[in-house]
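job 3f2a | input accepted
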Amino acid sequence: MTTQTDRPEATESLDTSGLLCPLPVYKAAMVLGKLREGEVLHLTCTDPGSLEDIPAMARQRGDVLLASEDRGDTQVFWIGKGAS
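job 3f2a | predicted structure (84 res):
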């Protein structure tokens, strides 16, 4: 769990609350595809599968999971855009 001071400054925010797999991953990948290297996506999900799916997506794309929080019914991620 990250603290407020550990949270990276976000370039873009995406709220996928209410969406189930694969939509949070798909929508996050679409936004990350538009960011420049080093920019940060702040992603909010309510799909419990996101706890495994989002880190896996980041690894596969070459992005960096900078921080995450499991708030019970909500999962929050900060993903840094990797080199293309």
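job 3f2a | The first helix runs from residue 23 to 34.
job 3f2a | closed
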